[in-house]
Structures are given as C-alpha cells and as structure tokens.
Amino acid sequence: MVNTDYAVQAVKGIKKSFDNAASLKIKEYMDSRLFNFENVSEVSEIFTSTEGMTGAKELSQLETPPSLRLEDGYSVTLTEKRFGGAIVLPEATYRRDGNDTTLKVNLFLQRQRNQLLVSNVNLFLTNIHKMYNEAFSSTSEFLAPDGVELCGAHTWKSGATFDNGVTAVFSESAVDSAMEFGGAFTDAAGVPMPVNYDTIVVKKGSATARNAKKLFAFNISPVAVNDINIYEGTMRVIETPYITYANRLNWFLIDSSKEIPMYVGIGEMPTLRAPIIENNEAIRTNCTGFWKQGVNNMPYNVFWSTGAA
After folding, report:
1. Based on the number of CB atoms within 10 Å of its own CB, is 168 exposed (0-12), middle (13-18) or buried (19 or more)?
2. What is the value of pTM for the model shown?
3. Are the beta carbons of 299 and 163 closer than 8 angstroms?
4. Is 176 helix (H, G, I), strand (E, B) or coil?
5. Are 148 and 156 in contact (CB under 8 A)?
6. For the chain, which residues make up each domain, given as ranges?
7. What one-character-per-residue DSSP string does 36-55 give?
8. Above 70 in pLDDT, residue 293?
9. 271 CB contacts (<8 Å, ≥6 apart)?
C-alpha cells in the first residue's frame, strides 16, 4: 500500500519534467517568426502604433533643423488570460490498485503528465494561431488597431489606406503581384517604406504548401525549357498544422525584418502547482499559465490571401 505522503511526493516528482517540457515546446514557436513573442510581467499592456515621421528638409548653412516627432496611431490594450487543466490521482490508485502499487502510481502519473502537457500546449498553440485562422473573419478579439480584420482594407489614423488581403490562388503570378505591392508600399505620410517578404506560411501537407516548396525551394529543376524559377531560395517556407483544414488554401507572406503585429505576451508558462489532497482523499494537481494575444500594430508587413480565386 502507498500512503498519502508518498503519493504527494510522487506528484511533486513530475513537476520539473512537466514545466521544462512545456517551456521548451512553446519556445520552439518563439523562433518560428510567426508571432512576436515576449515574456512580460504586466497583466495589461497598452500599445500605440506609430505611423511614420515627417518634416526632415534640406537646410541652409545656418538654419536650425526642425524638430521631428513620431505620428502616433491607434491605441491598443491587451489583457492576459488564465488557462490550464488538472490531473487527479484517485485514492484507490495509490492505496489499493495493483500488486506493485509504487510502480502503478508512477506509471499512472507519467501518463497523466504526458497527456496534460499535450493538452495544454495544444490549447496554447491553437489559440494563438486563431490570429491566422481568423485573419479574414475575426469579429472583435483579433482585429487590427483600426478595427478591421487582420487582412483587409486598412486605414491609418491619419487617413491614408492600404489593403493587405486578397483572394488569389497561390501561384508565381500571385507572388509577383504581392512583391510589387510590397515594393511600392508607403507609410501613412506617403513616404516609401518597401516591404520585403521573406517568409511564407501555409497549412502543413496542403497543396499550397507543396506548391510553395516547388516555387521557393533550392535545387528544383525547371519543368519546361526557359522555365526559370526567379524565386528559388528567396523565401522561408513555414508549414504549420495549426492552420485549419478549412483554411488550407490560405497563404501568408511576412516581412520578418519588421515587427510582427501578431503579438503573444507570456506572463507565465504552463506550470504544475502544489498537489492538493481533496475531501475524497484524491490528490489533485492544477496546471495553470497566463498569456495575452492580439494585433498590437498595423499589419503593413503582412500580405495574405484566401487562395479562393
């Protein structure tokens, strides 16, 4: 028979491995260039988009340079949310079940730990990818600072406009159009601010993903005489399973040299808390974490298509 003290210590024994695994799994996505990840201490954060700076001029020999200032854009406030789950070790499992109760408890906890890790990390990744999956249809939670879906007809606070949402099927000609759009982009004051797309995001395993790799990958042979791939090796292709099947035709271009507007502020990684002995003698262990997410800047450095037509 395993007593309560041993069972509690066994639960505590899985904490470090769980916390480390959760942190490492989430950190894999921090390097993906899909989001702007930050570890933060603030529960709520206020962001103000900047729309450029004007006023620089040619000066005479003794003229005082004019003072320039950033043109402030929209204000955005993001507040973190709490998420998590729990595992429960029933009294019968650690007191009565099985002949080798020590082994029984350890195996039971390892299986629960593994499933809890998968469940919580999946929840986190599914939620942050909503900014991609709802890029054309978000109702309120993941709108750009101007109140428009991430992909659509945007208006700078100063009144100028741009449209970063199209419907073109992925193809070389569609990429040509996107590159032309990026090369001609101007900021809110009409000053040239070229966007250099270097990352394409697609649904893992989709036809769009296969075509993207054919277009951008190294060492792909032309399929016809004089068929030269001018985009060979110029784009990082990211396939993610968290783009939904319904959005498998979507493709997303990003200039990762500029701040990614899809923001994720992590207050605390998923963490196992101290075990609690319940009234029924079961041992409950909660896993909780805190994060905030949203579009914290005008999405001028992204160009996205539904791939529908």
Report:
1. middle
2. 0.84
3. no
4. helix
5. no
6. 4-47+74-305
7. EEEE---SEEEEEEEEEE--
8. yes
9. 19, 22, 287, 288, 289
Rounded distance between C-alpha atoms, residue 2 and residue 91, angstroms: 10
Q: What angle do CA 205, 207, 210 make, to 5 degrees?
A: 70
In this structure, are residues 104 and 98 in contact, taking their beta carbons and an 8 Å threshold? yes
- pLDDT for the residue 100: 57
On whether the CB atoms of residues 52 and 189 are closer than 8 A, the answer is: yes
Q: Rounded CA gap, 302 and 282, in Å?
A: 50
Beta carbons within 10 angstroms of residue 108's beta carbon: 18
Q: Judge whether 270 and 52 are in contact, CB under 8 Å.
A: no
What is the pLDDT confidence band of residue 224, given thresholds at 50, 70 and 90? very low
Which pair of tokens denotes residue 278?
């319940």
How many whole angstroms from its chain centre is CA 227? 36
Three-state DSSP class for residue 87: strand
